[in-house]
Structure formats: C-alpha cells, structure tokens
Amino acid sequence: MHCHRGYRQISRQFAPLRRRLFAETIPDGPDEQLAIIRVQLNLQMGVVMKATHRYQNGRLYEEHGAWYVQYRQRIAREDGSSKLNRACKHLGRSTDFANVFDVERCRASFMQIVNCDRLSANSRVTLTAFVEGAYLPWTKEERRASTSKGHHEVWSNHLRNRIGELRLREFRTVDASRMLRAIAKEKDLPTTTLQHIKSVLSTIFTYARNEGAFDGANPVDKVLIPRHAREPGETHAYDLGQVLQILDLLPLLEKSIVATAAFAGLRRGELRGLEWTDYTGSELTINRSIWRSVVNLPKTRASRDSLPVVPALAEILDEYRRSMGNPEAGVVFHSGDGLPINIDKVGRRVIHRALEVTHLPWYGWHAFRRGLASNLYAMGAQDKVVQRILRHSKPHVTRERYIKVFDRTLLEAVEKVQARIEELKRAKANRQQLELKFGDDFAAAKSSTGGGFPHLSALRPAGGKQSMVEPMVSC
Fold first, then answer.
1. Alpha carbon distances (Å) from 51 to 12, 116, 301, 314, 380
2. Following DSSP, what letter does each residue of 39-71 receive, concatenated?
3. Cα separation of 122 and 109, whole Å?
4. CB under 8 Å to 231, separation ≥6 — which residues?
5. Residue-wise over 266-280: b if at least 16 C-beta within 10 A, else e?
6. Which residue of 70, 362, 415, 475 could cross-link 352, Cys pair, CB 3.0 to 4.6 Å?
C-alpha cells in the first residue's frame, strides 16, 4: 500500500513530461506507473534506452553467378515512424570465393555490421556524404593548408567518382583494393602517388572511427599497392661542384636563395618564411614556414630548430643584406615589396634559364636539400648528424630518401676495390716466388705460422746456397 502511494507521488511529479511523451491515456495501475517512472528517471539521468531487436542472420543465396544476402532494414517515414523493408547485399561474384566457407565468412562479417548499426544514426551515411560534410571541413580547421589542399585534390581527382553511393560502414578492404588497381590501370600513376591515395583514404576512416561514424578495424590498412604499378622517377641531388657552378651564374638575390637552400637545407616554405631576426651571422633559426599566403609553424617539431651557418653562406647573405640597406627586420627574400618572394617563379624564370646555358639540368629546389645530405654523407658525416642538420624527425627518412651516392663517389669506391685486388695479386705473386726459391722449408715454415708469411730467419735456401738468402734479407 505504501509502495503504491510512492509510485503515485513520483508519477504526479513527472506528469507533465509523461503527457508530452505519451499521446494516449496510460493505465493507472502500479505496474504501468512503475514502468513510466523508470523511463522518466532514465531520461532525467541521460540514460539512452534501446529497444530490443532480434539479431538477424540474413538469408544467403546465389543468383546469376553472384552471391547475395537478404536481410531486413528499418526505413524512416516522413511522419517519424519507421517500417521494415527487405534489402539485399551483393557480396561478390561466385568466382571471387574459393569455397562456400569464404562466402559464409563474408556473410557473417556483413551481418555483424548490419546488427551493430541498426541503432546508429549514422548507419545510412554514405562515404561521399561523410567526406564532404565532415572530413574535408575538418582538414581545413585542423591540418596545414597545404595538407588540406592535397587531400581535397586526391578526393576530387581520384576517389569521389569511384565511391558512388557506397555507405561508410559497408566499405571493405576489397573495395579499396579494387579502387587502387583501377586507378593504377587507368591513370598509370607511380607507386608513390598510389601510396598517397591510400594514405588519404586511411586517414578518412581513422577520423570516422574517432567521430563514432565507423567501428571496427580500418579497412584500408591492409590494402596492397598494385604490383605492376609504375615505379616512381629517380630523385636527384646537386653535389658541391654543381652548386658552386650554379651560384656563379645567378644574380645576388637568387644566389642568396640558392646558397641558403644548398648550404643550410631549408625547404621552400622555410625560405619564404625566413626573416632577418632569425639570422645572427653564425646561426639560422627556423621559426616559420609560408605556403602561398598562409603562415605556419615549420613542418614538424624537429624542424623548428637552429642551424650553424658556414662562412661561405654567411659571406653571401651579408653581401645581400648590405645591398638591401642592412635591414634589421622583415622578410629576407623579397623582390622589393616586402612580401615573401615566389620561390617557384624564381626557379622557373631565373635559375632554369641560367642553367640552360651550361646544359646543367634543373632538378627543383629539393635537389639542394638532398644534395646537402649527400655531400655531408660523402664527407664522412654520421647519419645522426645529417638528420640533425636536415631537421628530420626520423633518421630513416634521411637515410632512405635524401642521401644520394654521386658518380665520383662510386668511381672512388671502384678504384679502391681495384687497388685492393692489385695488392692481393702482388702478395700472391711474392708468395709463389718464395715457394720456388725455398721449396719445402717455406711450406713447413708457412704451416707453423698458421698460413701467413714465415720469418726469413726460419728459411734455408734449397741446395745449400747461402747467398740466395742474403739478397732477400737486404731487401
């Protein structure tokens, strides 16, 4: 009796909310009231109530040379209600599966997604809608401007028209694999570009997992790059002789830019972001990078560092500074308006044309940065030192992508091998000569020394000719 009074008292407290939730009259019995009270308390405490749904296994069938699974899908109506409709999912062609067990595994995997997603508000979101409505706006806010632009271009140029209406949560590894194979076949892209496309697609699903729009393992991580994709072009580096030859051809402004890139290893954006307050005469501090009109911090934390300035670079920068009126602040490299100079235009209009006279190829600005790494390595600098000067976060990037072996270094290495071969040949000829002169005594002495040359005092000339030893000793 007391319990029923308590239920009625709580029920009166939540009566306004009950009237909003239920349009029809609810019986006043204790059991019904208790159920209502539990719903209201759960709503007040923020507990999400889920209706009970039966787990679907789906009906597997084969038709027209392909495997399908049939299941029920809840469709929302305009009035807010919903209804169950039959839906089919194409699992793949019959030839895609080795046996019925592979088909069954594919069915189980898909139905697991269906059963997990039925209560999710994002279960019907297509990959295209998610990328354009959530991911790309996020890159503009959270990533560097150059990175955001690159992801926009990969999406619009390579991915968008191939995705279609595929739902985000239905995307599988096989979809990404087929997509990369089709892109490689149609556009003849190198493996590095395909790897970049894969990286962008993988980042999309990583972001989707963080936003709760996708559950499970990232379907792009295990995708293989097509084996027959075109190999990337060879990258190049300028050696010191080529750098000095280029510097002799250029006006003072362009000469200063090239010297800073070649002797300090600055990237294009870092060259544009360099200010006179960053230069002390013996040191450069990298504080910013400019891409187009966007000012950013340098690429990584390791990139935000100071570098020693070699006297050859300091001499060129000091001469350039005097020609500009000894400024104390402002952008270092500009064309008179105080704004950062367009590095790419300098390369195309000035440096490239100057190199045409000497028939020296223009490999781009990054060839100076690779050249610095390769020159340091050729002069005996350790990998860690080269990494520190180039300000890389990881040493394998410096070792695998930046250090190049110049032709003269290869020739020197081959010449050393040839010199060693000649040395061994001479040693072998001397050994044979000694064996002929001293006969069995040389062999016995050689075995007693473990195969090396015996001491001459242990040898006796064959036939008792003492005079043969004396010339050998005097040598």
1. 26, 13, 49, 74, 70
2. HHHHHHTTPPP----PPP--EEEEETTEEEEEE
3. 19
4. 190, 191
5. bbbbbbbbbbbebbe
6. 362
pTM of model > 0.90:
no
The pLDDT value given to residue 149: 94
Long-range Cβ pairs for the range 189-193 (8 Å, 24+): 189/229, 189/230, 190/229, 190/230, 190/231, 190/232, 190/233, 191/225, 191/229, 191/230, 191/231, 191/232, 192/232, 193/232
Helices vs. strands in the chain: H and E counts, helices first: 22, 7
Which H or E run includes 368?
helix 366-378
pLDDT of amino acid 154: 95
Tokens of 452: 């090396």
Give the pLDDT confidence of 37-89 residue by residue, as tens digits: 444 444 444 433 333 446 678 889 999 999 999 988 777 666 656 678 888 88
Q: Give me the DSSP letters along 138-199.
A: HHHHHS-HHHHHHHHHHIIIIIHHHHTT-BGGG--HHHHHHHHHHHHHHH--BHHHHHHHHH
402 or 226, which is more confident = 226
Angle between helices 191-210 and 145-154 (to 10 degrees): 100
Angle, helix 240-247 to helix 252-264, in steps of 10 degrees: 160
234 secondary structure, DSSP code: P
Cβ atoms of 384 and 276 within 8 Å: the answer is: no
Rounded Cα distance between 383 and 78, Å, is 66
Residue 370 in contact with residue 266, Cβ under 8 Å?
no
d(CA 307, CA 388): 9
Task: Report the distance separating Cα 7 and Cα 13, nearest Å.
Answer: 10
Phi and psi for 73 in degrees, rounded to 5? -130, 135
User: Which candidate, 37, 17, 16, places its Cα nearest to that of 28?
Assistant: 37
Beta bridge partner(s), residue 280: none
Backbone angles phi and psi of 74, in degrees to 5? -85, 125
Which DSSP helix (H) or strand (E) runs through 4? helix 2-13
User: Which among 252, 261, 269 is positioned nearest to 304, based on CA atoms?
Assistant: 269
Query: Is residue 213 within 8 Å of 129, Cβ to Cβ?
Result: no
Q: Classify residue 289 by its DSSP letter.
A: E
